[in-house]
């Protein structure tokens, strides 16, 4: 065979599969080794002194002995490894233990133990062992499993450890392992032992372009001795060929050889280390729980050598100390009279200690260098050592404490003498100054009396002079103003008359020219229609071009409202005034010009390219169709279809002139919003400078954000300023003065006229602003929008109209008159808005109308018809995403968040909205969320910023506690309140006058976060987390750490027995009692009648503790506990918008008027009802006694009864079991004869005297009706705010004051 000849021998499918499997196993093995080397290169650090040595801790976990029904080559290798480990365990435990005793000359009886060396000899030690025979047969080309078994049987048949095959046809053999007999099946032994990659596969790997594959096979590639040629063909050479045998490269090791090498390296590593052994046992072979097989466990203990180990531990001395170590630790137990360590040796001292403490001669042994003890004596020595040290420490403490106390006493005695000396001198000096001050005071009184008499005479003379001068100046000024007003009226009337005449002349000439043009156009159209009529069939009728609204609406002859500036003569220094030009006066003068044909003038804009087919979806045959509503309710023959003209009369009849003008203005703005009319050109610079038109809507507290912030934030912020803490940075929001006059409440940006270009947002705000301020025109607005949607050919106009309708449906509902018609109209919408608008109508009816204009988010959502995703912040750092719409309320948001976080105790949690550092509560009631968002956006507009950039945020906070609040009911609720308290203390929201409150709360917070273990760094973290920065600056960080550390170490949490949740509950309860006002609801109220108080206008704070009357400076005018409240109910008053509340107490009946009276009554009634249900204290209403029945309780009117609430009492007879507090007698009473007190604690005697109807003093007081003075408002402005009705603004007054000009259209 020459060098260039090529021999190719194909492999069978089995050989190819074996070759493939071997290659995959080799890749897996190499990858595993590569990963381990990478990890070791990073983790396995060398020593600095000796670079070749390492420090490591290894963990070896190996399979136990395996004995299956069919055991193969893998089981033989695993059992061989276990035999080696068992031999190492025996040598380490027994041999080394006995060697140690012999080394120290300890008398010891050797223990016989089972040795498995014979098993290892037959497996791998003796010549011709089993693994050697398997390797030898593996190298033979014609070797097989059968020939291997014959050699093994022939070589080891006489060995007791080896179990030969019973016959020639059997393929199994057995070995007596130390764990038992295991039979192995020899089938496949040689093939598994080879498990080598062929030369051809190695050559293929050498030719690969994969760098990682070449790297892991680097050792095989370096020893193959084959160079890569340019020939890209792969030659597969069988292992038995001559060419393969002639290869001089290193022979491939067998799998058993590799396993033995790896096992030898493992044993060397174990021998060089300090091993520890953990034995695992199976309780049963069935893998069942709670089943213990005693025989199986004993067999495992015996096979693993644990029985011998336990015996040697029991008979031996496991506790070993050197003499020096033992003497150093237990020196306190040595008596110097017996053995003096200064003169005697360490061994003698150790022997003396053991003789004194340990009884028995064989319980301890003395070796050459060490002392050996039993396992139980170590604990005895430690206990005696601790007792000895404790007695010595007590003596030292006693002496040091006595010295310290004596020193302190002498120091205090010297200080007391000094204090007495200075105090006596100070008291004498004070007496001298008091006498001197009395003489000076007497002299000053005499001089002041003389000066006062002189002042009164001069004051009377000055008043006479002032009255004369002021009267003269008033008469002179009135005369000048009267002359100026007459002059201005004359000039103004003349100018207005001239302008009206000039405008009428111009309009008449324009009408004449337009009439001629229309006549020409009509003639041309008639000619064209004739041509079209001839070309079309006779049965078709032409479409009308323009639909006529009415004769009066054919043409708009009324000019827009103009603003005339009249300048007074220079002699009169009067300011210029804006005078609206009247519009209605010219209607009669130009009535003669209204005879022009209806089709002559059309204000229809140029047809859009987006026009398509008619949107005819309103079916007149339906019972509640819009067509039927129009035919029944529209006036002046108004149709129900789309037009492009301004109308002169509203669609629906209205009695108020202001409503009529508002309807015409809204119609004009709707046409412009739907782009049915073009935008007018700007009239002057004043109109162009106006940016946003807003209104002072009813039932609002003003547009300024400072007035939108809740009473709780306002009162608590003032309380913080009063205490002198809470220094914070300047507010981003400009603070307005709290006492704003009526003239200052005019909003910036309200233009004087609407006849100017407006943005879509401005138009939307005008339309909805009219609807919110005038409830009677809401149906008119809906009718106008629906009218413009019927038969509207312009697609863009329709989309604008449906967007406007959907936004309006989210702000205010229609009246019952138009409700069903609007529902039917919306339901039949064909463009996709039907379902969306129907849902918004349902929601706004369910949740009530809004109070604010729509915000930017609502306008965007109306275009996409999707819900609004809003993030609600929780105090634990989580953000909950909820979907809202325009009608969403704070109660719905709170419930949605509670469902997502599994919050069960939801009472008292409210929704808060914040803008910059301002925050106010929306409660958990029917307040609309987007009303607050709209207020935030208005604040952004006030600061000349974009509405969409408003950084408002929603959050859930605890606002109110119940008097019976239990923190163990809901751990999630307790955790949220706990985090709120900690963050509130850090931010300065919760402020206390007592320093100990902060310290105790911080100690609880430390236990919650870090447990009972003390760490100074953790204490510093607690200070940084829950102590305000100002307090840390006033008192150093070191001082706070010291205080909190002492509170923690001396507190009840050092033992660590309390659970974290219970400590959280204690922290929440502490905060609830420390800051009751911070967890209150605040209501502005005016006292109409009742017992006299310093003020009639104040704030009512309702919390778990009671009811507080407070003024704006955090001064408490009156405090009422729930025990003092007799009754509370609403008082209906149709003349006043605000509702009144009657609060009957033991101190009298208060009549309060508040805008949130319903909510106030609901909170107080809930607390009263809940307290009565949970109370065990009752009051006897009248005397009760039954001499014939001893089970009944004898009580008098006014007695305090302690009720036992259980099921023993008869519910059928309405009886309860109670104890009389006065007589200590127990019996049953009727529920009708007692009155449960709203309290969870026993009432005091003073309160019982007030509330008890049996007291003579109170009964006398009840016979005379109380006389309360009625408290009137303190000023005319307050009287007007409380009693004047909401006026309907007319065009002549409201428009001028608020800056809007009602547009008289058509």
TrEMBL record:
Which chain regions cross the lipid bilayer? none
* Residue span(s) of domain MyTH4: 642-863
Q: Which UniProt keywords apply?
A: Actin-binding, ATP-binding, Cytoplasm, Motor protein, Myosin, Nucleotide-binding, Repeat, SH3 domain
Which InterPro entries does this UniProt record tie to the protein?
Band_41_domain, FERM/acyl-CoA-bd_prot_sf, FERM_2, FERM_central, FERM_domain, IQ_motif_EF-hand-BS, Kinesin_motor_dom_sf, Myosin_head_motor_dom-like
Please tell me whether the keyword ATP-binding is annotated for this protein.
yes
Task: State the family named in the UniProt similarity comment for this chain.
Answer: Belongs to the TRAFAC class myosin-kinesin ATPase superfamily. Myosin family.
Q: What is this protein called?
A: Myosin motor domain-containing protein
Q: Which organism is it from?
A: Perca flavescens
Starting at the broadest rank, the lineage of the source organism is: Eukaryota, Metazoa, Chordata, Craniata, Vertebrata
């Amino acid at each position: 065979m020459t060098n260039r000849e090529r021999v190719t021998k194909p492999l069978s499918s089995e050989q190819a599969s074996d070759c493939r499997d071997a290659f995959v196993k080799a890749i897996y093995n190499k990858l595993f080794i590569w990963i381990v080397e990478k990890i070791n290169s990073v983790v396995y650090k060398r020593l600095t002194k000796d670079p070749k040595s390492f420090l490591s801790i290894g963990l070896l976990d190996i399979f136990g002995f395996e004995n299956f029904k069919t055991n193969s080559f893998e089981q033989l290798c695993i059992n061989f490894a276990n035999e080696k480990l068992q031999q190492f365990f025996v040598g380490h435990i027994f041999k080394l233990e006995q060697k140690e005793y012999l080394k120290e000359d300890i008398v010891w009886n050797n223990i016989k133990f089972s040795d498995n060396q014979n098993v290892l000899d037959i497996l791998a030690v003796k010549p011709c062992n089993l693994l050697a025979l398997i390797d030898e047969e593996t190298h033979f080309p014609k070797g097989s499993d059968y020939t291997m078994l014959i050699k093994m049987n022939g070589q080891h048949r006489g060995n007791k450890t080896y179990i030969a095959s019973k016959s020639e046809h059997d393929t199994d053999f057995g070995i007596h392992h130390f764990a038992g007999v295991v039979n192995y099946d020899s089938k496949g032994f040689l093939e598994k032992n080879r498990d080598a990659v062929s030369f051809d596969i190695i050559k293929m790997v050498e030719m690969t372009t994969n760098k990682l594959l070449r790297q892991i096979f680097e050792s095989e590639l370096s020893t193959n001795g084959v160079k890569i040629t340019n020939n890209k063909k792969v030659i597969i050479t069988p292992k038995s060929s001559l060419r393969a045998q002639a290869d001089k490269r290193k022979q491939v090791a067998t799998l058993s050889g590799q396993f033995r090498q790896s096992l030898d390296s493992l044993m060397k590593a174990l021998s060089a280390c300090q091993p520890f052994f953990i034995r695992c046992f199976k309780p049963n072979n069935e893998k069942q729980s709670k089943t213990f097989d005693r025989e199986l466990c004993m067999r495992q203990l015996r096979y693993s050598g644990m029985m011998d180990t336990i015996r040697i531990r029991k008979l031996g001395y496991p506790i070993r100390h050197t003499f020096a170590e033992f003497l150093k630790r237990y020196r306190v137990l040595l008596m110097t009279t017996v053995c003096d360590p200064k003169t005697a040796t360490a061994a003698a001292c150790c022997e003396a200690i053991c003789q004194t403490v340990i009884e028995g001669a064989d319980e301890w042994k003395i070796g050459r260098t060490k002392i050996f003890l039993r396992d139980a004596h170590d604990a005895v020595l430690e206990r005696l050592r601790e007792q000895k040290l404790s007695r010595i420490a007590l003596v030292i403490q006693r002496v040091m404490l006595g010295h310290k106390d004596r020193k302190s006493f002498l120091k205090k005695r010297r200080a007391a003498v000094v204090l007495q000396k200075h105090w006596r001198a100070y008291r004498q000096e004070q007496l001298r100054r008091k006498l001197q001050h009395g003489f000076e005071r007497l002299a000053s009184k005499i001089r002041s009396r003389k000066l006062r008499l002189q002042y009164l005479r001069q004051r009377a003379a000055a008043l006479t002079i002032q009255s004369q001068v002021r009267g003269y100046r008033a008469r002179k000024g009135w005369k000048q103003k009267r002359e100026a007003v007459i002059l201005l009226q004359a000039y103004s009337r003349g100018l207005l008359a001239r302008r009206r005449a000039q405008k009428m002349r111009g309009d008449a000439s324009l009408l004449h020219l337009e009439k001629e043009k229309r006549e020409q156009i009509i003639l041309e159209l008639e000619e064209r229609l004739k041509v079209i009529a001839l070309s079309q069939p006779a049965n078709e009728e032409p479409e009308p071009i323009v639909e006529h609204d009415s004769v009066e609406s054919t043409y708009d002859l009324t000019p827009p409202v103009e603003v005339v500036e009249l300048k007074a003569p220079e002699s009169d220094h009067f300011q210029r005034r804006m005078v609206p030009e009247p519009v209605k006066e010219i209607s009669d003068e130009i009535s003669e010009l209204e005879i022009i044909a209806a089709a002559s003038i059309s204000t229809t804009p140029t047809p859009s390219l987006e026009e398509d087919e008619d949107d005819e979806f309103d079916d007149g045959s339906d019972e509640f169709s819009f067509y039927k509503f129009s035919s029944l309710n529209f006036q002046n023959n108004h149709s129900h279809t789309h037009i492009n003209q301004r109308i002169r009369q509203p669609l629906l009849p209205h009695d108020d002139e202001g409503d009529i003008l508002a309807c015409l203005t809204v119609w004009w703005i709707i046409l412009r919003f739907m782009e049915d009319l073009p935008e007018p050109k700007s009239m002057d610079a004043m109109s162009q400078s106006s940016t946003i038109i807003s209104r002072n809507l009813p039932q609002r507290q003003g547009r300024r954000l400072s007035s939108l912030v809740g009473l709780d934030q306002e009162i608590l912020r003032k309380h913080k300023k009063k205490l002198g803490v809470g220094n914070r940075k300047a507010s981003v929001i400009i603070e307005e003065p709290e006492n704003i006059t009526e003239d200052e409440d005019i909003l910036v940006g309200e233009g004087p006229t609407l006849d100017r270009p407006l943005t879509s947002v401005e138009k939307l705000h005008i339309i909805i602003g009219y609807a919110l301020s005038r409830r009677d025109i809401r149906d008119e607005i809906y009718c106008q929008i629906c009218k413009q949607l019927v038969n509207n050919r312009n697609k863009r106009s329709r989309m604008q109209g449906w967007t406007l309708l959907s936004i309006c449906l989210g702000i205010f509902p229609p009246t019952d008159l138009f409700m069903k018609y609007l529902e039917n109209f919306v339901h039949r919408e064909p463009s996709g808005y039907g379902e969306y608008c129907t849902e918004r109508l349902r929601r706004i009816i369910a949740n009530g109308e809004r109070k604010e204009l729509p915000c930017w988010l609502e306008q965007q959502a109306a275009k996409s018809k999707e819900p609004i995703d809003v993030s609600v912040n929780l105090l634990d750092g989580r953000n909950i995403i909820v979907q809202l719409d325009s009608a969403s309320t704070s109660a719905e948001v709170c419930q949605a968040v509670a469902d997502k976080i599994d919050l069960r105790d939801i009472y008292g949690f409210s929704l808060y909205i914040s803008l910059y550092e301002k925050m106010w509560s929306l409660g958990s009631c029917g307040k609309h969320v987007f009303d607050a968002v709209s207020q935030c956006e208005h604040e952004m507009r006030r600061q000349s910023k974009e509405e969409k950039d408003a950084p408002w945020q929603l959050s859930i906070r605890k606002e109110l506690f119940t008097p019976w609040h239990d923190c163990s009911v809901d751990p999630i609720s307790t955790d949220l309140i706990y985090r709120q308290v900690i963050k509130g203390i850090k931010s300065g929201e919760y402020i206390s006058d007592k320093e100990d409150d902060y310290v105790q709360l911080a100690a609880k917070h430390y236990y919650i976060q870090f447990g009972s273990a003390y760490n100074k760094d953790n204490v510093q973290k607690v200070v940084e987390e829950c102590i305000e920065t100002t307090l840390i600056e006033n008192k150093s960080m070191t001082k706070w750490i010291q205080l909190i550390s002492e509170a923690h170490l001396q507190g009840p949490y050092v033992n660590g027995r309390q659970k974290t949740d219970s400590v959280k509950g204690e922290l929440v309860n502490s905060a609830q009692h420390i800051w009751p006002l911070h967890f209150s609801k605040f209501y502005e109220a005016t006292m109409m009648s009742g017992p006299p108080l310093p003020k009639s206008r104040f704030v009512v704070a309702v919390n778990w503790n009671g009811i507080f009357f407070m003024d704006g400076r955090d001064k408490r005018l009156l405090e009422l506990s729930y025990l003092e409240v007799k009754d509370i109910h609403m008082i209906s008053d149709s003349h006043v918008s605000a509702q009144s509340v009657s609060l009957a107490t033991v101190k009298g009946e208060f009549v309060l008027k508040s805008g949130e009276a319903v909510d106030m009554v609901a909170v107080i009634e809930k607390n009263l009802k809940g307290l009565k249900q949970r109370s065990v204290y009752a009051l006897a209403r009248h005397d009760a006694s039954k001499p014939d029945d001893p089970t009944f309780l004898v009580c008098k009117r006014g007695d305090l009864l302690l009720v036992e609430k259980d099921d023993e009492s008869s519910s059928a007879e309405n009886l309860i079991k109670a104890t009389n507090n006065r007589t200590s007698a127990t019996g049953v009473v009727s529920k009708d004869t007692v009155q449960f007190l709203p309290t969870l604690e026993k009432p005091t005697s003073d309160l019982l005297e007030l509330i008890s109807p049996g007291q003579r003093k109170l009964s006398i007081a009840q016979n005379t009706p109380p006389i309360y003075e009625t408290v009137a408002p303190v000023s005319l402005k307050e009287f007007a705010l409380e009693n004047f009705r909401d006026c309907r603004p007319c065009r002549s007054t409201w428009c001028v004051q608020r800056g809007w000009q009602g547009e008289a259209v058509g």
